[in-house]
Amino acid sequence: MIAFKLLPRSALATALILLAAPVVAAEPLRLITVDEAKLPPSSASNVQERNLTRGPGVDAVAPPPIGVKGDPFRFAVRFKPRNGVPVDPATVRLIYSRQPAVDLSARIKPFVTAEGIDAPAVIAPPGRHVILIEATDKEGRVGRGQVTLTVE
User: What is the pLDDT of residues 4-17, one digit of tens each?
Assistant: First the structure.
């Protein structure tokens, strides 16, 4: 026979209060700072848009390519595994294409999974921002993609 231990009333009351508390939206993630946006753009000849290997695919999901206003927006990327081999989330890198290049990986890390990146509220200064994304699968094959953000 299995016996269940009941929680004391005070613990139950605390749990109910926490569940009923309003959800407070977190601060939006500042993906790119104003100072980083002021850096000179990287030369276009160094940008590789497509994979040359059979590494995972990297496809932008959000925001839409037509541009976003200055309000927080969703930044989402989907990884497409090849031959059923998943992406290793620890290997995902985001590089802001500037001179010098700016590594954004640590900022976005909490939103990275084997399926992709999904940051619900991101902000960036006005301008055109090219972000290079690199993901390596569990067999060591590298996939690359590019997202261009146009913020008004």
Answer: 444 455 444 444 34
In one-letter notation, the amino acid at residue 93 is R
Buried b (16+ CB within 10 A) or exposed e, 28-62: ebebbeeebbebeebeeeeeeeebeeebbbbebeb
The closest of 83, 82, 92, 97 to 39, measured between CA atoms, is 97
Amino acid at 130: V
Per-residue pLDDT of 50-104, as tens digits, reads 545 688 999 988 887 666 777 899 999 999 999 999 999 999 999 999 999 999 9
The answer to whether the CB of 22 falls within 8 A of the CB of 109 is no
Cα–Cα distance for residue pair 16/105, rounded to 1 Å = 37
Kindly list the domain boundaries of the chain, sorted by start residue.
26-151
Look at domain 26-151 and name its CATH class.
mainly beta
